[in-house]
Amino acid sequence: MDLPFPSNAFGDPQQRLLRGVPAFAALPAVARQELASHLTETPFAKDTVILDEGELADRLFLIEEGEVEVSIATHEGRAPLCRLSEGEMFGEIGLLLPSRRRTARVTATKPVMTSALRGSDLTHVLNKYPEARGVLVEAANQALVRSFVKCTRPFEKLTPERLQYFGQRLKAFEFPKGAVIFKQGDPGDACYLIRRGSVDVIREDPSGSHPVARLEAGDIVGESALLTSTPRDATLVVVEPVLMLALRRDDLIETLDQDKRVANHMVELMHQRDRPKAREGITLQPRPTAVGDTIWVLADPTRFGVYHQLSSVGLFVWKLMDGTHNVNEIVGKHPSERGPISAEEVARIMAELVQAGFAIGRQLDTDAALAAGPHLRWWERLWRRLMAFIGA
Predict the structure, then answer these.
(1) Which residues does residue 286 pair with via DSSP β-bridges, in sequence order?
(2) For 183-202, what is the mean pLDDT?
């Protein structure tokens, strides 16, 4: 294997390399010297897969020269998490996990020279200096959060740079079985990514409490209240002990503004979970066709000449728009003998009815609408905020 630099070109960079890693910088000089004595220079050619997901972890690597890409497998294929270069470390996460398995693939994007440290040697030193272990574990946890977020819709499209920024704004919370995370009617200050465990979504109405969904690892919950500035529309109860990552409203709005793909998915998710209600006074009128069939038309007596024609599926959806059904629940109620209907079709029909003013549904507040919409110049944003303030 030919490399563009000699394997001994770095002389004595080991101590300097260790000092550049926060976890090792916390160690006394004598401890770093001990670690340095166990480092082994290992070169890799461009495009070499140095580590792969699922492999047994036995070493970590410090990059002396070159560059690597860290990626993970997602439902849409491989997704890059970040690129690392001189002075950075990889491979430590697997050493710190109980499974001792690799969580990502690391590929050399350029010829790379590394200093490898065996897990047994690292453990020996960290057992003597627990403060360094704490720093290393925290860094590994942050990397695991980024990997988890990258596999979670709607954030799988975040670039590595935005993923790094986004991950720093997530705060972890653990809740035991039976805990109530928030109640219907509470103000919304954060949404949550479920990293581990499961929760039930429970709606309260005059007839009592009704579980309407069970959410598990990889699901996001609580986003609608942040996007609409309205109270929580359901209660969230822990079924199995959960680890959740909380994202505050300002950070969510900033993320929507930075990445329109994330914004589009969040708005779509809000509509999927919304339960629009038909406006009072709307009439449903049958109209015969020239061939003897009947079509159904909605009419609004308060708006002269405003009508909306319904397809057979539209009629079915309209009859269930009573403020208690979301997209998936309406799909589940469609009679099998009439053939399947898609969630996308139901969502489109509901959105059209809300937009046309025949039903009332959740609407983005001004901040969320500006963030999720097209990029605007500063004065256009100011003008839209002013119009929203005066109700124009």
Answers:
(1) 296
(2) 93
| 289 pLDDT higher than 90 | no
Cβ proximity of 192 and 222 under 8 Å: yes
Q: Predicted confidence band at 176 (pLDDT cuts at 50, 70, 90)?
A: very high
CA distance 317 to 361: 14
Burial of 14 (0-12, 13-18, 19+ CB in 10 A): buried
Inter-residue contact 330 to 320 (CB < 8 Å): yes
pLDDT score of 6: 44
Q: Where are the beta strands (DSSP E) in 139-234?
A: 171-175, 180-182, 190-205, 208-216, 220-221
Measured CA to CA, the distance from residue 101 to residue 93 in angstroms comes to 8
| Site of tokens 């598990």 | 216
Q: Give me the residue label for tokens 């609580």.
A: 222
User: For residue 345, with 0-12 CB atoms within 10 Å meaning exposed, 13-18 middle and 19 or more buried, which class applies?
Assistant: middle
Amino acid, single-letter form, for residue 75:
H
DSSP code at position 336: G
CA dihedral 326, 328, 332, 337 (to 10 degrees): 110
- Render 107-162 in DSSP notation, one character per residue: EESS-EEEEEEEHHHHHHHHHH-HHHHHHHHHHHHHHHHHHHHHTSTTGGG--HHH
Identity of residue 229: S
CB 180 within 8 A of CB 231: no
Q: Work out the percent of the chain whose per-residue pLDDT is above 90.
A: 44
Question: 3-class DSSP state for residue 369?
Answer: helix
CA distance 152 to 216: 11
What is the pLDDT averaged over residues 195-223?
90
Pairing of strands 277-278, 208-216: unpaired
pTM for the model: 0.70
Segment 137-171, tens digit of pLDDT: 887 888 888 878 877 877 877 877 788 888 888 99
